[in-house]
Amino acid sequence: MKIIVTSIFVQDQDKALAFYSDVLGFVKKQDVPAGEFRWITLVSPDDQRGTELLLEPNNHPAAKEYQEKLFADGIPVTMFGVTGIHEEYERLVNKGVTFTMEPTVMGGITIAVFDDTCGNLIQMMEQ
Description:
alpha/beta; 2,3-Dihydroxybiphenyl 1,2-Dioxygenase, domain 1; globular; Catechol 2,3-dioxygenase-like lactoylglutathione lyase family enzyme
């Protein structure tokens, strides 16, 4: 068994698609109608057959509350791995991304946290 899709709740699918593709650099894999919303997934440009990230609308009250509470408490909803966290941090800052935590060493890893502009905090980590 392996993880093939993981989802992240977003306030606006179009805004999220633009941020995750244009700013972060993920590649759109699927974008198909799904009722009043769309099934939009992205993948890493380095592993286009890997795990897909689903941009899930937060239209359900429980999803919206979950998302808002995690954001208010400063808890990232997911983690992305990077090989050069300081370079990635600078690249994203230059693209206007707001960080709530600059690259910080914690044991044998370095982490940073940023706002995805879609209601989430995202942690990136270099091992």
